[in-house]
Amino acid sequence: MSSSVVTRFAPSPTGYLHIGGARTALFNWLYARRFGGRMLLRIEDTDRERSTQGAIDAILDGMRWLGLDWDGDVIYQYARADRHREAAESLLASGHAYRCYATPEELTAMREAARAEGRPLRYDGRWRDRDPSEAPAGVKPVIRLRAPLDGETVVEDGVQGRVVWQNKDLDDLVLLRSDGNPTYMLAVVVDDHDMGVTQVIRGDDHLTNAARQRQIFDALGWEAPAMAHIPLIHGADGAKLSKRHGALGVDAYRDLGYLPAALRNYLVRLGWSHGDQEVFSTDEMVAAFDLKSIGRSPARFDFAKLENLNGLYIRGAADADLVAAIDAVLPALGPERGIAHPMSPDLRDKLTAAMPGLKERGKTLVDLLDSAYYLTAARPLALDEKARGLLGPEARERLAAILPALEALPDWNAATTEGAVRAFAESASVKLGQIAQPLRAALTGRATSPPVFDVMAVLGRDECLGRLRDQIGG
Ligand code: GLU
Description:
The chain is mainly α.
């Protein structure tokens, strides 16, 4: 038997790829890469009513965007139902399972009795040892696991440590429903086995399932994979993660202007640590990732930390890569800003030229795009309130006064425009800011922007002079 590591990410396609799922996928991916193994992707689509193609697409897109590639073809759980049924039949044949003919009424009565006595519902095993010849006519049976009655079921969990269940507390779970459909619990076990999974890494909301699954593995005589159940993510206030806290789909993070590398870096630190290191390249995280450094208490989602990390990645990214990343989010962000996707070659050039100034101040691609407003704005510029405040009558007069000096410049670049503006400020005995701020307002429509002489260089002579004349004339 090969000893190479196989992990899997097994999302249920009932919604988008949310942030907790993305972290689970990342941990599985890192673990597989760390040990030279493979990460498989299994779509758990057995719930036919809640599984949708839209959700499957969102999960695959989200993983691709995050750079979490899986090995081999996507495995669809529902397509393997025959194989799951076959496993249930084999358990019947080996005596590890039995047909149960308890009627819905009987099960309801069992549930009510349990409730009245204040104990959890457990199937009482009434068909466990009954002769099948006693089967009532017309009742379609379910197949149940003949679970051990005493002793313990133990999971040595890579994160939670040794977790022990008393078998007397675990009842005979259903493997195959009366309509012949396998249960989720059976499907997971058969799939994990057939896929050769050696290490399960998933949220600790599945910890109790692990006991059930362990019993099925044992009954089938299969070796169970190692298990690691990671604490769920909580909001900054310690409460369960909700939308308000950031429980959004990965696609929402993309449209908020986060870079995949920054989100990966943020997610890896959500529950896992490596000394006090906060910033990890992908290679660094692969080299350092392990299960024993996953904490046992829930990690807290912190938007401010994600933003800061994203700002760091933006400042470190190549200008052309940022322009490409902006272009990729234009389908979502462009329409309200009047920018088409893909962006025009002219805008691409201007954005690339402006990027050194833009990226120093933005934490997200949305910030960059908003600070780049001046590149795409049409004349005459719509000024925001602060910019209007900077362009009072006196300021407009100053702009009118400096215009001839700018018009006369033989070369137009950041250095020459700066020289002209400084010379003018000196001769007029005004501070540089008193002329630079109105210039900025007239050229960008905003009170803050990248350095104004960079703006002038990027916009070019004609556009700058045009925008200044628009304000002087008005
Ligand atoms: N399909 C389950 C989920 O989305 C995961 C099951 C597993 O990892 O075993 O929560």
